[in-house]
Design a protein that fits this description.
The chain has a seven-stranded mixed sheet. The radius of gyration is 20 Å and the shape is globular. Helix 2 packs parallel to helix 3 and helix 4 packs across helix 5. The two termini are about 40 Å apart. A hairpin with a 7-residue loop joins strand 1 and strand 2. The chain has about 325 residues and is of the alpha+beta class. The structure holds adenosine-5'-diphosphate (ADP) and magnesium ion. The site of adenosine-5'-diphosphate has 13 residues, from strand 4 and strand 5.
Length: about 325
């Protein structure tokens, strides 16, 4: 199959279409329309074989994760997604791999009502780069830099699951898992690793409420650190308040669960800060969309992150995922 028919068959014909796309796949560049009063939000993430997914991972799932991690960045800004472009580096044209990959892509494009508007296809080591774009009403984007002393720190969903899921996927979980692992828990944890859910609805709800927000891709310690650096603040986090899934608490002992929740990446939950006065409004808004978020601590002026348990300092050895 030649490059152009490949693009046409696997990508152009698979995408849902949107009214705000004037020219999509097929020309030298895409042309899109940004609604009045909205700012354009753009983010890029690459998934590399052997680094972000295991080389034999299911292509359907890889495609969906590549979209999800990008949408998670938009969610963290309070943006709603509109378009993606896809840069694909493939070692060879493997029709069945591309069939499954493009089907995963198609289903997510449809689910999130977003359009694939272009990309690039090259031969090389397996790598998937997606650029996602979306909108946020002008002036309402949530950044990392707005946290203030006294603000409460919240985390959505549950954290640490993807890290434990990765240990299971690599066959390294026997060291930490209490035997036997319930099949339903194993399934849940692997799903958390392979099929993350971008918290788009919560992100948009937070627009006029949160003072700062970040998505948890590299682990709480590392990612909260980015908020503290950008906001020039410190924080206290109570490790007993970290949101843990039942699959996590029933599969490993408590220190291990806390360690995963603090240090493991790939959960794609949102961590955000709000002024204490907004607490009631936040809780009402979250329950109106059936979303969960736990208060894990507060922002202060200390300039550092302190972890506490029962009001005592909590020592941890591990740091978040670092690429270099
Ligand atoms: P050019 O050489 O002008 O960069 P290409 O041959 O790379 O053009 O791409 C032709 C068209 O197909 C362009 O519209 C481009 O955006 C699109 N395209 C290429 N690869 C992909 C891909 N993996 N997914 C989606 N669209 C793609
Ligand atoms: Mg090109």
């Amino acid at each position: 199959m030649k490059e152009f028919s490949l693009i046409d068959h696997f990508f152009k014909q698979k995408t849902s279409t949107r009214k705000d796309v004037i020219i999509g796949i097929g020309d030298d560049a895409a042309i899109t329309h940004i609604p009045d009063g909205q700012a354009l939000v753009t983010t890029t993430d690459t998934l590399l074989s052997g680094v972000h997914f295991l080389p034999d991972a299911d292509p359907f799932t890889i495609a969906q994760k590549a979209i999800a991690v990008n949408l998670s960045d938009l969610a963290a800004m309070g943006a709603e997604p509109a378009w993606i472009s896809l840069s694909l580096s493939l070692p060879e044209v493997d029709q069945s791999w591309l069939e499954a990959f493009s089907e995963g892509l198609r289903q997510h494009l449809e689910y999130y009502s977003i359009q694939l508007i272009g990309g690039d296809t090259v031969q090389g080591p397996l790598a998937i780069t997606i650029t996602a774009q979306g909108f946020v009403p002008k002036g309402q984007a949530i950044t990392r830099g707005g946290a203030n002393p006294g603000d409460l720190i919240y985390v959505t969903g549950s954290i640490g699951d993807a890290g434990l899921g990765l240990a299971i996927a690599k066959g390294e979980a026997d060291k930490v898992i209490r035997e036997p692992l319930l099949p339903a828990h194993g399934e849940f944890l692997l799903k958390r690793l392979n099929s993350p859910t971008p918290r788009l609805l919560v992100g948009t709800l937070l627009r006029r409420m949160a003072s700062s927000c970040i998505d948890l891709s590299d682990g709480l310690i590392s990612d909260l650190g980015h908020i503290l650096a950008a906001s020039e603040c410190g924080a206290v986090v109570d490790v007993d308040h970290l949101p843990l899934s039942t699959a996590m608490t029933e599969s490993v002992d408590r220190p291990t669960a806390i360690n995963y929740a603090l240090s493991a990446g790939d959960d794609y939950e949102l961590l955000f800060t709000i002024n204490e006065e907004q607490k009631g409004k936040l809780e009402t808004a979250l329950s109106s969309v059936n979303a969960m978020a736990m208060c894990v601590g507060h922002i202060n002026r200390s300039g550092k992150l302190e972890l506490k348990q029962n009001d005592q300092p909590f020592a941890t050895q591990t740091l978040g995922y670092q690429h270099f």
